[in-house]
Amino acid sequence: MTTYPSSARTFRAEDRGTPPTRRRNVFWRMRRSWSAYAFLSVPLLLFSVFTLFALVFAFYLTFHEYNALEPDTPFVGLRNYSDMVHDQAFRGSIVNTFYFTAVSVPLTMVVGLLVALLLNLPLRGRGLLRTLYFLPVVTPFVVVAILWKWLYNGDFGLFNYYLIKTNVIDKPLLFLADQHLAMPAVILMSIWSGVGFSMVVYLAALQAIPEDLYEAARVDGANGLSRLLHITVPMLRPTTLFLAVIGIIGAFQVFTQIFVMTSGGPAEKTTTVVYFIYLAAFKFYEFGYASTLSFGLLAILLVFTVIQLRIYRKGDA
Amino acid sequence: MSGFAERGRRRTPQAVRQVTPGPDPTSAAELDAVAPDATEAVLLDADVTQPSRKRKRRSVWYWLAYVVLVPFAILFVAPFAWLISASFQNIGDIFSWPPHWIPQHPSTSGYQKFLGIGPLKGDDSPQAWRWFLNSAFVACSVTVLQLFFNSLAAYVFAKREFPGKNVIFLLFLATMMIPGQITLIPNYLVIKHIPLFGGNDILGQGGSGWLDSYWGLIMPGVVSAFGIFLLRQYMVSIPDELLDAARIDGANEFSIYFRVVLPLCGPALAATGIFTFQGAWEDFFWPLIIVSSPDHYTAPLGLALFVVEKRTQWDVLFSGSVIATLPMIIVFIIFQRRFIQGISVSGLKG
Fold first, then answer.
1. Taking CB atoms and an 8 Å limit, are B284 and A1 in contact across chains?
2. Do A117 and B42 touch (CB under 8 A)?
3. Where does the chain cross the membrane (chain B) (predicted)?
4. Distance between CA A180 and CA A186 in Å, rounded?
5. What pLDDT is attached to residue A96?
6. What string of DSSP letters covers B146-202?
7. A233 in contact with B at a CB cutoff of 8 Å?
8. Is B163 found in the same domain as B107?
9. Among residues B113, B139, B170, which one ends one of the domains?
């Protein structure tokens, strides 16, 4: 188990004065423990109820048919799990979520990196530019979703207006009602709202790269591209891993955009895993089955995170 | 060390000039051929933190960065500009073709409708400003409570030694990465069965508990394992000598925490506080699930349900959106530096 040497040093002041006898130590430990437990009591209580108990209870629910509208909650063994494995609609939502994640996460990171590289230049007014790129991050997500829902509007939306004006299309597109356009539309909006975050994280990482490395490479005659590829990109690897892990976890939980912009439609093409769980739990009140689905989500996330860490470690060796 | 940086800075302009010689690229092929040099400029300039005032001639790539960044930034801001402009248009002008970037007939009718000149849905429904009061109350309560209890727990984990500490701390850590969807349903049931609230008996049966109440909105958000972890990491670096000195002076444990440790945690508290406030202000999923009466709608919930149910009143929606965004923008502008620092240090939003 982990030890915390700094905390152990807490006793040093007393120790220096009087050589600690066993009895005195125990006395002090108990006295201190009493207040430490008192400090921890409220956080620990809330944590136990809303996290620990909730986890255990969720696991318990997965083995029961727990419909909020029915008084009986019979034990059904692994039936929820086998239902989940054979659920076509759930499989469809996983495919949609993969689609969303596979496109939005890398694009958000790449655009964020490019903007960060450029904004790391000593440009005049780069503070303002950084703020502008960061604005979507501080905007409440519901507002972003509402705003973009209007931008995509089939009759009066700005997208249609400018696409028609520039003769890219001749008829207005129903972005959010078209089976093939709805998900790309949601993805574009999500990238817009996420670029600022990856930009800031990349900027911080860029500024932490020691200048000596570039200096040395320059002395050795490395040109700009090879310095980018062999210094900047490798030095940004931990940041990239971090953004990928956080991004994938976030993308797998995409919900607000879907709820506000498409309600999972058209033809369930934008029904993501979390939206599907939401429907199961709070439209159909199948709490047992919905809990099982959320454990399915956890399993997928775990697999992904482990794979990413593996790739990362392999790259290190 | 500083000598290195100094030399690098002096060398940079030369180097920039070296890598951008030759005629201006005229064809796309030529542009591709010299494109790698763009990265050259990025890197060379990247290690200069302050723009040199002496440099008169800027490289081509310096201006090209603007050529890329500025139009892109305009595209980024355009939706906001539209939002603000549309919020000052009446409903007829919003539904006009072509759209107007500058309001034709500036009007505050959307804001007026929103800010309480009459209820939104029917006579018995509350006014929309109530959503914002709810949001403000919930977000402030969650932030204050979370800062207090998180730091209390963080202090204990960072600076105290007691039986069971490692087990409890590991439990907190282990649950950090678990997606919120798993605890959602059990928490809904827990909230519903809180004893003695909302008509429940002592066993938590019969009523609605904390559902559809401020309690239900606030209490589950009061402790965050991640916040505790961040604060603990920060507190570990506070020298024990300070605590010892206070202890020798006769301070009790609470005043050591409150008067010695807490004031030294300013930056960490600010960073986590901002994120907590932001997260609570824009939280959507949890209110959506536990709130049912418009009396307790938060701003995001009210707006989202409004857009899903009432599809036409876009003037009200745009005004409401602007009002919902303003607190976040204000917090961001005031705490901009801390915000960015917080993200780069903790690397997490919300």
1. no
2. yes
3. 60-84, 131-157, 169-191, 214-235, 256-277, 316-335
4. 11
5. 94
6. HHHHHHHHHHHHHH---TTHHHHHHHHHHTTTS-HHHHHHHHHHHHHT-TTSTT--T
7. no
8. no
9. B113
Residues of chain B with C-beta less than 8 angstroms from the C-beta of A69: none
Class of domain A88-316: mainly alpha
Question: In terms of domains, do B50 and B194 share one?
Answer: no
Q: In one letter, which amino acid is B221?
A: G
The ipTM of this complex is 0.80
pLDDT of residue A187: 94
Contact B324 A260 (CB under 8 A): no
- In chain A, CATH 1.10.3720.10 covers 88-316
Most A CBs within 10 Å, among B91, B161, B248, to test the A interface: B161
**In chain B, which residues have their Cβ closer than 8 Å to the Cβ of A115?**
69, 72
Q: How confident is the model at residue A106 (pLDDT cuts 50, 70, 90)?
A: very high
Which of B39, B78, B325 lies nearest to residue A224, judging by beta carbons?
A: B39
In 3D space, the residue among B318, B267, B323 whose CA is nearest the CA of residue B129 turns out to be B323
Selected residue of A3, A33, A40 to mutate for chain B interface (largest B Cβ count, 10 A): A40
- Shared domain for B48 and B167, answered yes or no, is no
- Range of the structural domain that residue B198 is part of: 129-346
Q: For residues A182 and B106, which has the higher predicted lDDT (pLDDT)?
A: A182
Which of B328, B273, B274 has the alpha carbon at shortest distance from B148? B273
In eight-state DSSP terms, residue A176 is G
Give the separation between CA A202 and CA A208, rounded to whole angstroms: 10
The pLDDT averaged over each successive group of 10 residues in chain B (350 residues) is 35 37 37 34 36 54 82 87 86 76 78 65 61 90 94 90 85 82 88 81 76 88 88 87 87 87 86 87 89 85 78 78 88 78 55
pLDDT band at A90 (very low <50, low <70, confident <90, very high): very high
Q: Contact A54/B171, CB-based, under 8 Å? A: no
Chain A residues inside the 8 Å CB shell of B260: none
Q: Between B76, B160, B170, which is nearest A133 by CB?
A: B76
How many structural domains is chain B composed of?
2
At B144 the pLDDT is 94
Q: Indicate whether B139 and B244 sit together in one domain.
A: yes
Q: DSSP character for A266?
A: S
The answer to whether A242 contacts chain B (CB < 8 Å) is yes
**Least CB–CB distance from A122: residue in B45, B152, B289:** B45
Nearest CA in chain A to B308: A260
What's the confidence (pLDDT) of residue A113?
Answer: 93
Q: Which range among A166-170, A224-228, B247-251 has the greatest average pLDDT?
A: B247-251
Q: Is B266 inside a domain boundary?
A: yes
Which chain B residues are within 8 Å of A205, Cβ to Cβ?
A: 344
Cα–Cα dist A173/A234, whole Å? 42
* pTM of this structure: 0.80
Q: Do A139 and B155 touch (CB under 8 A)?
A: no
**What is the average per-residue pLDDT within A252-277?**
89
Q: At what angle do helices A22-47 and B165-174 cross, to 10 degrees?
A: 20
Look at residue A75 and give its three-state secondary structure: strand
